[in-house]
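ok new one. same drill as before - structure tokens go in, u give me an amino acid for every spot. 183 of them this time. try not to just spam alanines like last time pls lmao
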């Protein structure tokens, strides 16, 4: 997790109405810093975090250290594999920008497949020129074929249609944060 993201965790926790979700899956949630902060602010919520093996182990340690291990579970897995089904919300924070459009659509499709019809998929990414850096963008392009996307990312679709723009609501950003605010 980058230093930029760590400084934004309080803004993300305060800026989203997390209380509307009883269950949350943090897809590619790293060591669980954001998820732990959300859970600390919302004691009725339970959550699962999905990330690769060693990272999921680190998340489990974070949950244990912060006394959240009874409400948060870390699952070793990939967001290209089936995700835990039936959560109220699926969170993708700083994930999609690492992938080309085809892989980003696959990740969103996995979330949509796991989600109930009334579930939400929350995407938090730096948008446009907010907190983007040319050197970082070039490194992502060369190493992964990925890039920061300018809003609206209609080509990536929505939870209801991960292959196209049907139902796309766009996003808003909080000033100085570069984090999309849900519609």
């Amino acid at each position: 997790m980058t230093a930029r993201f760590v400084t934004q965790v309080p803004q993300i926790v305060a800026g989203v109405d997390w209380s509307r979700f009883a269950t949350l899956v943090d897809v590619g949630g790293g060591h669980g810093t954001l998820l732990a902060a959300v859970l600390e602010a919302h004691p009725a919520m339970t959550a699962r975090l999905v990330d690769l093996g060693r990272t999921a182990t680190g998340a489990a340690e974070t949950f244990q250290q912060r006394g959240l291990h009874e409400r948060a579970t870390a699952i070793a897995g990939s967001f290209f594999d089936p995700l835990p089904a039936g959560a109220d919300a699926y969170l993708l924070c700083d994930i999609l920008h690492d992938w080309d459009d085809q892989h980003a659509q696959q990740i969103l499709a996995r979330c949509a497949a796991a989600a109930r019809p009334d579930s939400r998929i929350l995407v938090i990414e730096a948008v446009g020129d907010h907190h983007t850096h040319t050197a970082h963008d070039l490194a992502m392009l060369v190493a992964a074929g990925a890039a920061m996307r300018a809003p609206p990312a209609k080509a990536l679709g929505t939870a209801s249609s991960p292959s196209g723009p049907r139902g796309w609501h766009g996003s808003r950003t909080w000033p100085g944060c570069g984090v999309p605010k849900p519609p």
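Residues 3-181 form a domain with the Rossmann fold fold (CATH 3.40.50.150). and btw Confidence is low (pLDDT under 50) at residues 134-144, 149-183.
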